[in-house]
Each structure stands twice: as C-alpha cells, then as structure tokens.
Amino acid sequence: MCLGIPGRVVRWLEPVGVGASAEVAFGGVSKVCHMACVPDARVDDYVLVHAGVAICRIDQVEAERILNDLRALAEMADDEILG
Amino acid sequence: MRYLDEFRDPRLAADRLSRIRRTATRVWTLMEVCGGQTHSLVRHGIPEALAGCVELIHGPGCPVCVTSEALVDRAQALARQPETLLTTFGDMLRVPGTYGTLLDARRDGGNVQSVASPLDAVELAQRNPHFQVVFFAVGFETTVPASALAVLQASERRIENFSLLVAHVRVQPAMELLLQQADCRVQGLLAAGHVCTVVGYETYNSLVSAYGVPIVVTGFEPVDLLEGILACVVQLETHSARLENCYARTAKLQGNPVAQQLIASVFEPCDRAWRGLGTIPAGGWKLRAPWRSFDAERRFPQAPVGLPIVEALSHRCRASDVLVGRLAPRDCPEFGGSCRPDSPLGAPMVSSEGACAAYYHHAPSPPHRAPSQDES
Ligand code: SF4
Fold first, then answer.
1. What is the CATH number of the domain that holds B296?
2. B256 vs A60: CB contact, 8 Å cut-off?
3. Which is it for strands B188-192 and A21-26: parallel, antiparallel or unpaired?
4. Residues in CB range of B173: below 8 A, 6 or more apart
5. CA distance B118 to B374
6. CB contact under 8 A, B249 and A58
C-alpha cells in the first residue's frame, strides 16, 4: 500500500474536479490514474501513484541533483581506491 | 523504470554502504517505520550487509498488520451479509480475525473481491446497483486520499450503495508511542517517505526535540535507504539530533497541500485501536460528520457473525512484539514452521508490507547459519 510507483503523465483525460484523470505510463504500461491531488502536473511530468491515485509530483530537478551528487561521490571513492 | 532504476544502481549503493561502514564507530540501532521499506531492505540484503555497524529494527508501518481484529471481524460479518460485496486490497483477504479470514467468508459463499483502489470499488457499486458495496479502507496517509476521493466521487455521482469500513491509521502518533516505550532501543528513525509526500514532515520537529532522536525522511530504493541510514549514522556519530530529508525528490516539508485538503474535507483524526499496540490517541482517521452516511459501521447495524471462533491464533502469534521491534521475525518460534505465508498465524506473515513475510520471502535464515529442518 505504501509502494508508490513513479509514472509519466502521457495525457490528461479529465482535467478538473474530483473525477480528474490522466493516462500515466509505467515503463511500457499505461494506466488511467486519478489526478485530483496533482492538478498542476503537466504532460511528461512524473507523478507518484498509490492505489490508483497520483499523490504528488516528482521533483525532477531535485532528483537529477541528488543523482549527480551521489555519482560524483561514488567516483571520488573509486579514485581513492585506485589512486 | 525512471526514478526507480537509478536508485537501485549497485555502484551507488556500494559507495553508500562503505561510507556507513567507515562512519560508524559502534553499532547504532535504527528503526525504519514503513513496511514497504522493511521489504526493500530485506530483499536487498541490507540488514546483513550492515551487520556490525547498524542494527535495523522494523517498525509498525504495515497497515494490514495493525488493523484491529475487531475491524477484521466486522468485515467478515459484512462479507457474509446478503446482497453485499465486500472489497479491499488483496493483502487484507488473508489476514486472520477471530472467525478466520475474508477468504474463508468467500469460500462460504460471501461476496469478497480484491481491488487495487477504492475508486474501483465505486465503479463496482455503480455497476451493481442491487448490491451494497463496502470498501474495507486500510492504510496510512498514502491511501487516505484515495478513500477521500472515493467518497467524493460516490457523492457527486449519487452512488448510494457505496460505503467505507474505515480502518485508516495515522503514522506520527504511532511513532511517538514507540518513542515513549520504556524499553525503546531506537536511536534514530527513518521516516516513511511516501507518507511525507502527502502530509509533509515539519511536524516531526516536535518528536526530534521531545525525544532527542534524529529523524531522516527516507525513500524506498536501496540507494535511498542507504542514504537515509548514512545520514542517521552521521548525526549519531556527531551527537546531533536533527530532522533531515533524504527523499527530497518527492517529500517536501509541507507535503502536498491539495491532498491534505482532500483528506481534511472528508476525514478527521480519531482514536484508533492498533493491533498489537492498543488504542492510540488520534492514531486513526474517521469520516467527518457530513460524510457519515458513507460509514459502513453506521449503515449496517452490527450483526453477530454467528460462526465458531477459530482457535485463538493470536495467542501463538508474537505480532505485537514484532511490530514494535522487540522481537525479530526469525526469532518467533512459529516462523517458517507453523506460520508461513500460505498458512499465516498473524498479519505480519500475510502482508506484502509485513516484516515476517519479508524475511520469509527474502531471507528465511541468517546467512551464517545453514537452513535446518528440525529446529525447535
Ligand atoms: S512469524 Fe507468524 S506467528 Fe510469529 S510473529 Fe510473525 S506472523 Fe506472528
């Protein structure tokens, strides 16, 4: 139940209200998800989906920043070992 | 998949792991709160990999496991009611209550169906107007928005044969209760990242200052988990206790205000009995007054189940100790013997978020010991 899955917004189906929905792609599989909690999500944004409902947007800038940091640190460690 | 695979990168994980090993000068005891994190940790062998520097004790964050026996029994009674369709998440079907499981109810002719979302239950209600469709609503704040939406959609579409048997729980009061236990060994907490995406994490500041423990908001993939553990260990080694966020790509300080508003428009906090932990003040969610007509407990007067009580399984199950980290799953005498996923004695062996099931599936015996058949 807490296993939220990140998916990419493919297209909005119903943009407003408690019935708001969009097609969201998870890898190769697309599903209709409820979007009332993420009214600002745009096509190609990533959202986290729980029990059929997108509960938040994924901050792609932050994700890249963290990955770059982690990769730089791992490389530094490799250099230390090799050097 | 994007935003999963990158955070499973073995090279990044190895680097985090070696940093934890280099940083820890002693064994620190940390608790991950959420059962989804427990499964990911055990699946990736992280507790074993950290032996000697971090002991992980597994928290109560398995909604299926903490749902009270009384509510499971209530669901059982509803499932056996004529012209009623009881729906819930798949894991809930095999959780034993006083009178057996919901699968037993189905075998006896009751209408029980697993659904992936409460909103699917709303659709079922619309398609089956002659049935009362009840959704047994379990879960933390991650699934509460879905239940809130289900109520609002049913109301808007005038679907009157839909209701909720509400078992929703709130995470923070349970964390606080754990920290208050006299025998609490937890020195640092990994907060459940996905709950924080909804409710935010600012309110954890009060726990950090009251109990002097570091709290680190943590994600679910191996690199996320190791990053959260590293941050916790760094704090502990430097004698600090702060609130930190290692899951910033989804969890924000204020959470998702739209989702919070949605929850608050339909639900309000209430005291809730947690299996194994007792009644936790403000430990659950209930429907607000305007939505009480969707409350299955009100709609259907409590009918006696009229079934023999199944042997008191709960006497043998040590779930209450497992849920607070007092007992490691593999140390339960029933583990893997009379308690297995196909014949569970307790909810932690059933659920995809239960700690006992995590060890059964991913690490049934400690690595340094050969599995043996005749252990008593
Ligand atoms: S192994 Fe089974 S009996 Fe033991 S605590 Fe876990 S669920 Fe209960």
1. 3.40.50.11740
2. no
3. unpaired
4. B280, B281, B282, B283
5. 44
6. yes
What type of residue sits at position B199? V
Question: Ligand 1: distance of its center to the CA of A27 in Å?
Answer: 36
Nearest-10 Cα torsion for B362, B365, B367, B370? -140
Q: Is residue B371 part of a domain?
A: no
SS3 letters across A6-71: EEEEEEEEECCCCCCEEEEEECCEEEEEECCCCCCCCCCCEEEEECCEEEEECCHHHHHHHHHHHH
Find where tokens 């620190």 sit: B28
Residue closest to B30 by CA, chosen among B225, B323, B229, B321: B229
Compute the distance from residue B355 Cα to the ligand 1 centre, in Å: 9
Beta-carbon contacts below 8 Å between A and B: 137
Q: How far apart are CA A55 and CA B35, in angstroms?
A: 19
Residue-number span of the structural domain to which A52 is assigned: 5-82
Q: How far is the CA of B344 from the centre of ligand 1 (A)?
A: 7
Based on the structure, what is the number of domains in chain B?
1
What is the CATH number for A66? 2.30.30.140
Residues in chain B: 376
Alpha-carbon gap, residue B114 to B135, rounded angstroms = 9
Print the domain residue range for B340. 1-361
Flag whether residue A29 sits within 8 Å of chain B, measured between CB atoms: no
Closest atom of ligand 1 relative to the B335 alpha carbon: 1
Q: Interface pTM (ipTM) of the complex?
A: 0.90
Q: Is B71 left (phi over 0), alpha (psi -120 to 50) or beta?
A: alpha
Distance CA A52, CA B61 (A): 20
Domain total in chain A: 1
Q: What is the pLDDT along chain B (376 residues), one digit of tens a residue?
A: 788 888 999 999 999 999 999 999 999 999 998 888 999 999 999 999 999 999 999 888 888 888 988 899 999 999 999 999 999 999 899 888 888 899 999 999 999 999 999 999 999 999 999 999 999 999 999 999 999 999 999 999 999 999 999 999 999 999 999 899 888 889 999 999 999 999 999 999 999 999 999 999 999 999 999 999 999 999 999 999 999 999 999 999 999 999 999 999 999 999 999 887 889 999 999 999 999 999 999 999 876 666 666 655 557 888 888 887 888 999 999 999 989 988 888 888 887 778 999 999 998 887 654 444 443 3
Q: Smallest Cα–Cα separation from B11: which of A6, A63, A76, A59?
A: A76
